[in-house]
Amino acid sequence: MKTILIATFSLLVAACASNPLPDLKRLYGNTPDPGSIQKQSAQEDFQNPVILLHGILGSRLRHADTREEIWPGGLTDLLFSNFKDMALPIHPDSLSPYPSGVEAYAITDRAAGRDYYAQIIRTLHEAGGFEPGTPGQYANHHERRYYVFVYDWRQDNVQSARKLDRLIEQIRKDYGDPDLRVDLVAHSMGGLIARYYLRYGAVDVLDDNDFPVNNHGASRVRRVVLVGTPNFGSVSALQEFLQGFRVGLRRIPTEVIATWPSAYQLLPHPINTWLVTVDGRELERDLFDANIWRRFEWSIFDPAVESRILEQFEDAKQGQAYLERLQHYFGIHLERARRFVWSLSVAAEEMPISYVVFGGDCVLTPARIIVEEIDGESAVRLYPREIVNRVPDIDYQTLMLEPGDGRVTKPSLLARQTLDPTIRRHRYSYFPLDYSVMFCDDHDRLTGNINFQDNLLNILLSRDKRVPGQ
Fold first, then answer.
1. Mean pLDDT, range 432-460, rounded to an integer
2. Distance CA 429, CA 424 (A)
3. Is the distance from CB of 118 to CB of 24 less than 8 angstroms?
4. Which residues have CB under 8 Å from 93's CB, separation 6+?
5. Which of 133, 294, 299, 321 is 20 to 30 Å from 455 by CA-CA measure?
6. Which residues contact 207 (CB under 8 A, 6 or more apart)?
7. What is the overall mean pLDDT for the chain?
8. First vs last Cα of the chain: how many Å apart?
9. What SS3 class is residue 153?
10. How far is CA 357 from CA 49, 143, 224, 256, 438, in A?
11. Overall average pLDDT of the 289-305 stretch
12. In the 8-state DSSP scheme, what is residue 126?
């Protein structure tokens, strides 16, 4: 037994020794290098400020007047809340969200024992030597500085891009440099906001099907790093519209999610094959047509959900009026989401910035849902285990799931219509990719991956004339 224990211990030690972790402080710490012969010039000493963009659920929300937090709240809230306070109020005339008195005030660094952004912020500060920046305060050109872009992730991504533009303009003023360029590090949905900003700045181009690219943001940004961004949308987002978003022991109800304009903009891109039959044939259905949702009785068109909405009102007429308003609102924001995803895909004459993309490709991730006919009725299957009448020789795991990070598939991450890298990119998918790096982590843990952090600091701090992502 003693011999076995010694042998086992030796194997563990050998495994640890053969897989050392990078010393990020030694690699990137802002300390003098004794091997340096020449002192850097003032220009070389300047470090472009970094802005970290979080994804959906990535900022803390609270009532501005009472300071009561509605997301994420305490552990009890995460486990037992019904999350009704997270619904956006809908203006009865404009059918758009109107001010609710809720504000995003800080990043969701940790929640329910999960580390969302605490590790990446700590790495920027402790290993990279970046100090936290405060908009509106003077910024020293000779200091490494990072900013956290905090926004209400429920709102339309175009609205968030406008807020990002205001932040960048303020940073330019703080540095006293009207030509300053920043670096963007964007996780998940934050990457979609960054991409929209690069192309259109603060201009809303979603009122029609013309998307005139002005490269406003590209003139203010040096490098862009996308982490786990659903560049071709997410079937997981569709599933959450159908069954709610699981948080703790409960789910954020679909009728709450349906009030968030941003959630529609995460749906699978029309180029995707997102719906198939039980025998593997593609079904061409327009996901951005509200009639499809009504026909399948999805989300707020589900009779059970309709009843749940009506039960919230003591006055039946008021309840019916709200339900009709919400369903009309649903159609408007589906169409707006269609234009949003296409606005990021249409070709541009020139895009001076290409993306560095990081993501996961080790976790089987929802890629398609199935429609199965049962006794003449269409039934939607979200997972392989739900299929009743299986067709021989069809691998439903392969059909419905693809490698990814659990929320975003590898093809979506790379804005591709297929997993096969030998197939050319779809002609309507313009995506100026510099290069991509894949890890084995799930969606919420990507920014905490030390190999990502190592690569990120190298990208941000490199002074080479031609560096990845420049």
1. 95
2. 10
3. no
4. none
5. 133
6. none
7. 90
8. 57
9. coil
10. 19, 26, 9, 31, 8
11. 96
12. I
Residues of the chain with CATH 3.40.50.1820: 43-232+345-361+429-461
- CA-CA distance, 335 to 71, in Å (whole number)? 28
- Count of Cβ atoms closer than 10 Å to residue 293 Cβ: 22
Q: What single DSSP character describes residue 147?
A: E
DSSP 224: E
**CB distance 270 to 287 below 8 Å:** yes
β-strands 433-439, 355-360 pairing:
parallel
Gap between the Cα atoms of 350 and 265, Å rounded: 24
Does residue 226 contact residue 185 with C-beta atoms inside 8 Å? no
How do residues 123-172 score in pLDDT, each as one tens digit?
Answer: 999 999 999 999 999 998 889 999 999 999 999 999 999 999 999 999 99
- Asked whether the beta carbons of 199 and 343 are under 8 A apart, the reply is yes
Integer Cα distance of 344 and 213 in angstroms: 10
Q: Which two tokens stand for residue 398?
A: 């392969």
Measured CA distances, 148 to 124, 181, 227, 280 (Å)? 11, 16, 15, 44
Distance in angstroms (rounded) separating the CA atoms of residues 418 and 272: 8
Dist CA 168 CA 368 (whole Å): 38
Contacts of 119 (CB under 8 A, 6+ apart): 447, 448, 453
Alpha-carbon distances of 289 from 193, 230, 254, 340, rounded to whole Å = 23, 21, 18, 14
Closest CA to 436 of 398, 465, 405, 400: 405
Cα–Cα distance for residue pair 418/452, rounded to 1 Å? 25
pTM above 0.90?
Answer: yes
**Amino acid letter, residue 418:** T
43-232+345-361+429-461: CATH topology is Rossmann fold (3.40.50)
Which amino acid does the sequence have at 452?
Answer: F
φ, ψ of residue 122 to 5 degrees: the values are -65, -40
- Cα(114)–Cα(88) distance, integer angstroms: 26
Find, among 411, 420, 452, 414, the residue nearest to 434 by Cα.
414
Q: Which residues face 183 on adjacent strands? A: 50, 223
Tell me the C-alpha to C-alpha distance, in Å, between residue 437 and each of 358, 422, 450, 455.
5, 17, 13, 9
